[in-house]
Design a protein that fits this description.
Elements: E1 5-14, E2 21-29, E3 36-41, E4 52-57, H1 58-66, E5 74-79, E6 83-89, E7 94-100, H2 101-114, H3 126-136
Antiparallel strand pairs: 1-2, 1-7, 2-3, 3-4, 5-6, 6-7
Length: 137
């Protein structure tokens, strides 16, 4: 089984109060969940002081590098030639985060190197997942 990717980047949390700030952020890809990526923000980026993680489609991130993408709680879009904006919606409000496009491209290149686009279904263990669900029922 290929190994997971944990890629550290700097992101800019866009805020009006107190001010925008750089935050260390982790981008994660695990071939055990081949369609998804996770972005993990440290406790200092949240209002309640807890780590915040978002999981969304790898394809959404890919599309967001080229143009506006997203429906629902997570949206991405290019912001000039070097940046990508992300918008994360919650019941409490929304967070705007700016990433360097090259960091996202590098991460996606590594992720697609582990599981190529179109090969995701081959990395799923449908029988094992179904058996686990039936055991829990």
């Amino acid at each position: 089984m290929p190994t997971a990717i944990d890629h550290a980047v700097q992101a800019r949390l866009i805020a009006s109060e107190p001010r925008s700030q750089q935050i260390p952020t982790a981008l994660r890809y695990d071939p055990a969940d081949p369609y998804a990526v996770r972005v993990v923000f440290p406790p200092q980026a949240s209002l309640d002081g807890a780590e915040v993680a978002w999981t969304f489609a790898r394809e959404l991130l890919t599309e967001g590098l080229r143009g506006p993408a997203g429906v629902g709680d997570v949206h991405f879009w290019p912001c000039g030639p070097r940046s990508v904006m992300a918008e994360f919606h919650t019941v409490e409000g929304l967070a705007m985060v700016q990433f360097e496009a090259r960091d996202l491209r590098c991460f996606l290149s590594m992720a697609y190197g582990v599981v190529a686009r179109g090969d995701e279904a081959r990395h799923l263990d449908v029988d094992g997942d179904l058996a686990a669900l039936l055991r829990e029922a």
